[in-house]
Batch of 2 targets.
Target 1
Amino acid sequence: MTTQSTTTSAIRVHDLVKAYGELRVLHGVDFEVERGSIFALLGSNGAGKTTVVKILSTLLKADAGTVSVNGFDVTTREADVRRSISLTGQFAAVDEMLSGRENLVLVARLRHLENPGAIADDLLDRFSLTDAAERRVSTYSGGMRRRLDIAMSLVGNPQIIFLDEPTSGLDPQGRIEVWRDIEDLAARGATVLLTTQYLDEAEHLADRIAILHGGRIIVDGTLAELRKLLPPTEIEYVEKQPTLEDVFLAIISDAGNDRSVGTDE
Amino acid sequence: MTTHFVGDTAVLTGRSLRHVTRSLDTIITTAIMPVAIMLLFVYVFGGAIDTGSESYVDYMLPGILLITIASGVSYTAFRLFMDMKSGIFERFQSMPIARSGVLWAHVLTSLVANLTSLVIVVGVALLMGFRSGAGVPAWLAVAGILILFTLALTWIAVIPGLSAKSVDGAGAFSYPLVFLPFISSAFVPTDTMPGPVRAFAEHQPVTSIVNTIRDLFTRQPVGTDIWIALSWCAGILIVAYVFAMVTYRHRIS
């Protein structure tokens, strides 16, 4: 029987240590993630974010420390952990030779679910991929691949979802679509742990943010708490210019109008 | 977890077989090189090679079949490497499935793809005049040896498939395997070779396997060669499997 712990924490990490040979990556990482929340692990490249995610998802073994996911210890209850989670890795782990629908059916079969076809159709619809469902994934854009990747993670409604840099390599439009999907996940009650190196992403999505630096969590709190760490705000008046991103999004969202900003006529 | 092993392996094998059927070029490419070598040897060199009374295509087909397998397994390494690189391997490993099914699916796919290529090559050989009086039991014995040889080379292929850093690295292991039949009894009788080469040729696995298959095709008694051939295949299979598992544990610790 799978006994679930009564704690409200979906993920507990205590004094986690990991080294690759001589290279010590994690020197005692501590954090907890509350059920149903979005938790962002923020850090620069090579800070060890992916290592943390791999240990949480039973792909790597910790050298020391205790880690539990959904109340199950990751070293002694691997099978229960894998039943509770899904992992969306740093690169969209989709099968390019299969169609989008076949990818989803594959995952549903491997999760031993009934009606894999219906589950696939439902997710294709939810992620606006129905039109591309029968096409081979090798023809998909980066954003579509990422959405399919996340959809594959949702097959079987896992309680805890790990997203390792879900928007790296996406264009601004794809990034906003993925953000919407992540918010949607949390709204449906899943616990989401995401890693990112984009500060605005953490700011936009996360209920709680932890900064991984030098192998330790150096700050952990809500956005408001993190803001308090800085000296009181000074009020300055600046003219608000649209960012290039605002301009880009405004122009491409007008795709139907065939608008041109050229002056060569 | 073992309760799902058969079902999960079947689902994953279905997936990688789709990779094969959707890139039929891999099967054709696997068959083209051995067919080209066969044409070259039969119609160019063959006339000058004295193998006794047998027709030359009959003589060299066993070696050609081994070359087919040796070049075919490089695609197994390639498919496994692509799964590692794309991250889908990790996705499978983080799911509640029988984990070893991921490797076994590639092994079974390798078997199916190679057997298909072998059928194509034997078909071309028949067009070129290959004839065998072998009965069903002898053909089954040939099939059994070829399957065992494919499994042995497939487990070798798993090692670079899991550990290679580049696509080229993943496939490079197959070149020496493809070359091995040339220094064996596959194309010329070994007694024409100079001492050290002959010693190598007579004591490497391909010669005993080729001799066994040739005897089965020509309805000769197989003698002790079949036991040497089977020992080689089983030995390579076991050693390759152990190293593949060590590599696997190293990658997925």
Note: The first strand of chain A starts at residue 9 and ends at 20.
Target 2
Amino acid sequence: MKKMNEQQMDHLLSQYVDGRLSEIEVQKVESFLALDTSAQQRVKELRRLKDLLTSKQKLAPDIGFWNRFAAALEEQKKDEHSLLPFPRKFVPAITIIVAAVVVVVGTLVIQNRMQFIQYFSEKSQAVREVYERNVLQGQLLPLFSKVDKDRALQFSLFGTLALDDKSKTELRVDQQSKKGYRIEVGKDSKNKAKPMTFDHFLAEVKPTSGQKHLIDSLLELTGRRIESSVLIGENNTMAIAPDLPNLNRMMVTNIAACLEPYQRVQFERLLEANDAPYTVTAQSVPARKGDRIFQNIPQSPRDNRFFIITPDTMMYSQLHIDFDSLRRHMEENVVMFELRREAMLKRMIAREFQHAPRNVPWPQPVQSFGNEEFFSVEINVPTEEIEQQQMRVIIQPRIRKQILQTATPNHSIQERAWKDTASEGLTR
Amino acid sequence: MALPLPGAGWSSKDKPYQIGVRARSFVPSFTKTNDASSMTNDHILPKPSVDVLRKMSDEALITAFQSGDHDVYRFLVERHQERIRNLLFSIFHDRDFIDDLAQEVFIKAYQALPRFRFEASFYTWLYRIAVNKSRDELRKKKLRRFFSFQTLDEGIEHELNMRLSVPPEDRDTQELVALGLQSLPEKFRTAVVLKDIDGLSYEEIAEVMQCELGTVKSRISRARSMLRKALKPLLEEV
């Protein structure tokens, strides 16, 4: 036998032990073993090893194996069933079909990309046109536009705002109701406030140049807030920002807060002389700086939410309107918008008013009612909603003589009472 | 027309079922008749009893399974679970671990059985699944050891040497053989387990491990050589 290395020897002897060698090979190995004692020892060890492995202890059959396996298999089937909406055997076929569809659709899209681009452009154009038709072209318009400083001051001090100089229709925010605020849009009433201009205010209160700029900014902000707080639409729809009733009180508070104590006395005299619905207290508090005042004033209606009132329904919902572009659009077509708004308002006030559902899903119970001459919304809010402690200048509703004379003891949400009051005002 | 006796024609001594002819007899709605025009409910063959099914060949059971009677898989599992569990136990030497692994092997086989082509015997096919599964598991273990910076092989060799250093009468031969197997690389370990513990032929091992016959011989001789060196004190006792 030719000389072998150890690995070759192991290989040969392993085959020999397993009986895998031919008769001639066996004879050769045995003649070699007869001469080599170390090889004999190796064969001996291999046989011993084989015996040990063969006699290795076996595990007994597991009687419960099937039951456990069946449960595991069931679980597996459930998992597969929940993952695949079709039998598992269809996976390859469905994969191929889906891939083919993706390729075909992808190819079609690439080949006809210009048509697709045109289609989506037309779609977006259609959406833009709908928006322009509904919002920009007057389907939904701000009731008030171009609210200047004088009108903003008038609203802040007295809670009333005429639609324009000629119109008798005005917005009235009345805080005298014990249950909350009342917003009325209607013809002139008995509580019409005296006209107030910014120049008159300056002459009476005599603010410094800095205070004047501050109040000027406040009134500008008030004007913009009024413009975006009351919207009127086709089909006798009206949208009112829920924080509108607080707006005038908030502005009076801020105007008072930026005045020095001696100016505040003048301001209170002005309010009293004009029978304003508010009175200034805590007059000794020093004037506040502009940045502290402005940081407490919200710039737009809260979360873009409005009370949307139609003849039959009332909801509290988001209404996304780009007021800046709306204003620009209205400035470009002033006459057309004015005519449209006038017509909408007439239709709304002149209609036979129906009661809307009493409560909307919001913390503030809201009611709307009216007659042929006016439209009124009452919003019940906590009396001290404005953070007056933070402002430190206290503005309180003034008890006015007219109200004391005319208001019924239970002046609240009774439809009859409101109708009577309004009718009384209109007949005078 | 007399119904054939339950189990008649299903003997495992016979040739495996002709696919699509005899297999139908396992499905109650199918009829077993040579005359297709006389197919009536009278000729519906009753399902074989459990005893008959238990005696049926692997091929017959697989044919029945492929014809839609998945219940027969139970008899295949019961027949082969012991061998598969022992194979996995020899490779991993971890009683708790192998039960889950054996379940996975049989689930894999269940899913693949509809595609079984009778080109190999069922148990070598099942062994192949088990070996592939254990290879995957060993790779995972190796990866886990790598990322946890453990040197398990060295630990096994150290333990083996410790156990071999005690007096021969205190040695646990079974434990030593198991540790010796654990110290082998996976492909050598599997080859020697299949040959010397499970008693498969070289050709069957080549089929199970999907490699050449020469490779199998080489792996077995290398494995034995390594084991002989590792267990030398034990082998010299006799």
Note: Residues 75-235 of chain B form a domain with the Arc Repressor Mutant, subunit A fold (CATH 1.10.10.10).
